[in-house]
Amino acid sequence: MVRIRGIDIANKHVKSKNRSAPVSENVYLLLLVKLYRYLARRTNSNFNKVVLKRLYMSRVNRPPISLSRLASLTKNISAKTAVVVGTITDDDRFEVVPKMSVAALRITKSARARILNAGGEVLTLDQLALRAPTGSHCVLLRGERNAREAVKHFGAAPGTPKSTAKPYVRSKGRKFERARGRRASRGYKN
Question: Which has more confidence, 138 or 77?
Fold first, then answer.
């Protein structure tokens, strides 16, 4: 006699850790989510799914991108629209802004002015949805996630061997955490 057994699904009560909606209560963000939810469902486009997923993200996971980095990344793709689900910031060190087409969640006032002065265009994500509902002729970009100052302090504790983590110091100077463990001339250096 053969006994047929069911499959014991161990993950029966396990919730997905991925967000299915933004935590923010910003009404404009929620309207964008509603729009891109519709587009992700009704179009067979991966672009819309990725944009929707990024709209759900927290601010730490939507890092800003500077004008200089944006220009270097879009150097060979001038015909496409650069899409950033985050903030585009200005860069004073960057002198000549090329003509470019960008769409972003947010853009600083000075960055917007510099792009428009160069003959470029700045779109919002809802304007982009009207122009390119499937994300055609668009390139998705994002900023460096680990560029935050806080990330420098992560890792093995400062002072332990081979650690490159930045210590939380009251001030930076001769008298602050510069003795034993920091210099070979003062006992040892990690």
Answer: 138
Q: Quick one: which H or E segment has residue 96?
A: none
Residue linked to tokens 């759900």: 56
- Give me the amino acid identity at 19: R
Neighbours of 168 (CB within 10 A): 8
Please give the structure tokens belonging to residue 186: 């003062």
Query: Could you give the angle at the alpha carbon of 78 between the alpha carbons of 47 and 118, nearest 5°?
Result: 115
CB atoms within 10 A of CB 25: 7
Cα four-point dihedral sign 81, 86, 89, 93? negative
pTM here is 0.87
Question: For residues 90 and 159, which has the higher predicted lDDT (pLDDT)?
Answer: 90
Contact 57, 19 (CB under 8 A): yes
Name residues whose C-beta falls within 8 Å of residue 6's C-beta, 6 or more positions apart in sequence. none
Count of alpha carbons within 13 angstroms of residue 132, beta-carbon side: 22
